[in-house]
Amino acid sequence: MGFLRKILGRGGGEDESDPTPDDRDVAGSVDPDAEERQHELDVLRSEAERMDELTRRQLRYADYAWQPPPQGGERRADDGESSPQG
């Protein structure tokens, strides 16, 4: 209801900075962003507990893994030949 008051411009003369019970959501918290951050941290924590040591090491050192050199390249077989032989 508080957001409707702000949109319609009917403040009622009361201080809008402190949340009233009407401004709170069902869970009773004021900041939904903090709840979302806490949920994301809980999900990350549960995923970290689910991974075994090998998977954690593989993810940790993935940037240092050896990559084979690229095959081919931009140069083609007929590059550099000025006249066709035939």
Question: In terms of topology, how is this protein built?
Answer:
Layout lengths: L1 H7 L23 H19 L2 H8 L26
Structure description:
With about 90 residues, this protein is mostly helical. The protein has 3 helices and no strands. The protein is elongated and about 80 Å long. The termini are far apart. The relative contact order is 0.06. The mean pLDDT is about 75.
Terminus-to-terminus distance = 86 Å
Report low-confidence residues grouped into runs of 5 or more: none
Structural class: mainly alpha
User: Based on CA inertia axes, which overall geometry fits?
Assistant: elongated
Q: What's the number of extended β-strand segments?
A: 0
Bin the strand percentage: under 5%
Order of helices and strands: HHH
Oligomer state of the chains in this structure: single chain
